[in-house]
Write a structure and sequence with these properties.
Blueprint (H helix, E strand, L loop, with lengths): L2 E7 L3 H11 L6 E6 L3 H13 L3 E6 L5 H14 L4 E4 L11 H10 L4 E8 L5 H18 L12 E4 H10 L8 H11 L4 E8 L11 H18 L22 H18 L8 H11 L1 H17 L9 H22 L7 E5 L1 H10 L3 E5 L7 H9 L3 E5 L4 H11 L5 E5 L6 H11 L3 E5 L11 E6 L2 E6 L1 H9 L3 E10 L2 E10 L9 H22 L12 H7 L1
Parallel strand pairs: 1-2, 1-4, 2-3, 5-7, 8-16, 9-12, 9-15, 10-11, 10-12
Antiparallel strand pairs: 4-6, 5-6, 13-14, 15-16
Helix pairs in contact: 1-2, 3-6, 5-7, 7-8, 9-15, 10-12, 11-12
Length: 553
């Protein structure tokens, strides 16, 4: 274990010297990230760095926020070969004498997040105290655990490897929302928590950069975003950070409880209590999810060109509408998971196909996309009396099935784990279609480990990568291949489109490669058509064309 200390600072010239002096006896490397401080603090940090060889100052050219400063500290520490970071504040609130207690706990449990549990004196403002209590309860709900005693305390020791892995997937907020978000994500990732009581004081005349209205709203929006994001965010440790498969949760410990709580709320009160959260969540993503916003704008520019426009770069307003549309669809998914099928007016285009499969007892392979709501297939299958099996890349398929069954025992949906290293998945799919069931999969993202099994097809003005597997598998099993797209056409209204791409007839071996490519190209062409019909319902918030763009460079 190689620990260091990290201190983010913004204009605390009066206190930083005392904080650093109190750490001198430990002789730990100390990384101070100056987050765009003024001249007085810069001068004080220069004196400190010259006086203490174990102190390193890293500077931001402008104020980026506490979260951005801590990310810089973590990555700098990792670059210096550190395994753990003890972080504390620059304003003198934290008892630096407790650093050895945090290190002792981390050495006993090097895989754990060691969190400070504040022991306050009478100096704490009452609104801060009650705000922390509220955050504690919210985090208990978010994580389905009472392991975290204070998610806001900045005095903590974090294990760098798992933390940086999570930050590579999504950086989190840049400001005061960073600390609680990181705690929730670490707990959801299975990181154990050790709580250490430590004195925290609010010195008279102390400088606080916590903005009561703005930061509380930011933290509230973060809690809402994480609660809503939990049920469909699937992570695979073997995939590229840019590649995600989203339909259900692999992070079951926290997300299952959060999902059950939200579904319970919708069952009793409807979606109205959650609808006011959609605007701040969409605004948060628009302002702070930089990579997702850029991907949104790049996609919207392509759509504009496809519809005959100039393809000019969209602004924040268009991205906000895009994210808001995503939030609306997610709220509808909660209603579905609550069993509120009767709240939706679903118009099925291609009903005769579903009826034919049901009457003939013939299974089918259905391919969808991150366009609209793939979950609406459940409504169609429920009405037709056909079971649906969803292929998903996750190690937790059994637990997800239990969650679906607990939420809606009659949903008729089962998750099949995709394992590229085993033939068991293929045999399970074969059994499903032989029983006359539907096997469904999202076919607009290549799977982890599936980089060699892709086909490039033209999509919205450029070649994009689509997985070959679903199209080839349906052909080899000689079952119909059906494209399904469900577009939100109004409040609680969806139009579901079923288009048969192939009828399941045998294909000679020498023609299979060509047939698979033709089917992928047909899928891409029809997907482009539906994207132009509902541009704001495409929910692949990463650079979908990046790999092929790089291949041409």
């Amino acid at each position: 274990m190689k620990p260091c200390v990290a201190i983010p600072i913004f204009d605390h010239a009066e206190t930083i010297g005392t904080v650093v002096d109190s750490l001198a006896s430990f002789q730990l490397p100390c990384i101070i990230v100056d987050d765009g401080s003024g001249e007085a603090t810069r001068a004080e940090l220069e004196r400190i760095e010259a006086r203490h060889a174990w102190v390193e100052v890293v500077r931001h050219d402008r104020n980026r926020g506490r979260g951005a400063a801590l990310r810089t500290a973590y990555r700098t520490a990792a670059g210096r070969g550190m395994t753990h970071v003890v972080q504390l504040d620059a304003d003198g609130q934290h008892a630096a004498a407790d650093v050895p207690k945090f290190l002792e706990a981390a050495r006993a449990r090097p895989d754990a997040l060691v969190l400070g549990t504040p022991v306050f004196d009478d100096s704490i403002p009452w609104h801060r105290l009650y705000g922390r209590k509220l955050s504690q309860v919210i985090v208990w709900l978010e994580t389905a655990s009472r392991a975290v005693r204070d998610p806001l305390c900045g005095f903590r020791c974090i294990p760098l490897a798992v933390t940086l892995s999570l930050l590579d997937e999504a950086e989190g907020g840049d400001r005061m929302d960073f600390d609680p978000e990181l705690v929730i994500r670490l707990v959801r990732a299975g990181v154990p928590v050790v709580n250490i009581p430590t004195a925290v004081r609010y010195p008279e005349g102390g400088i606080s950069h916590f903005r009561m209205l703005e930061d509380n709203l930011r933290i509230a929006a973060t809690y809402a975003r994480l609660a809503i994001a939990a049920p469909w965010s699937v992570r695979s440790r073997t995939r590229s950070p840019r590649r995600e498969i989203e339909w259900a949760s692999a992070s079951e410990r926290g997300s299952r409880f959060a999902l059950q709580f939200l579904v319970w709320l919708i069952r009793r009160l409807g979606g109205a209590p959650l609808r006011p959260l959609l605007a701040p969540i969409a605004a948060y993503y628009t302002l702070f999810a930089v990579r997702a916003r850029r991907a949104s704008q790049a996609y919207l520019a392509r759509i504009d060109r496809a519809q005959g426009g100039s393809g000019a770069q969209p602004g924040l307003r268009e991205s906000y509408r895009h994210f808001y549309s995503f939030a609306e669809v997610i709220l509808d998914r909660f209603a579905l998971w609550s069993g509120a099928y009767d709240r939706f007016d679903v118009v099925l285009h291609g009903r005769e196909k579903m009826e034919a499969y049901r009457k003939g007892g013939r299974g089918a392979f259905m391919v969808g996309a991150h366009l609209g709501s793939f979950d609406m297939l459940r409504v169609v299958a429920r009405e037709a009396g056909i079971s649906v099996n969803v292929l998903m890349f996750t190690a937790n398929a059994e637990r997800i099935n239990e969650a679906f069954e607990a939420l809606d025992p009659d949903c008729g949906v089962r998750v099949i784990k995709i394992d590229p290293t085993s033939a068991r998945t293929v045999f399970e799919i074969r059994r499903c279609v032989d029983r006359g069931e539907i096997v469904a999969v999202l076919a607009d993202r290549s799977l982890p480990g599936g980089r060699r099994r892709i086909i490039r097809a033209n999509f919205l003005g450029g070649p994009a990568e689509f997985p070959e597997g679903p199209f080839r598998l349906a052909m080899l099993m000689q079952v119909p291949l059906v494209m399904t797209i469900a577009l939100r056409t109004g409040p609680n209204r969806y139009d579901v489109f079923l288009e048969e791409i192939a009828d399941g007839e045998p294909v000679p071996a020498e023609n299979r490669a060509k047939a698979v490519r033709e089917r992928v190209e047909t899928f891409a062409s029809r997907l482009e058509y539906y994207c132009t019909q509902a541009p704001l319902q495409w929910f692949n918030f990463y650079d979908f064309w990046a790999d092929t763009d790089h291949a041409r460079e």
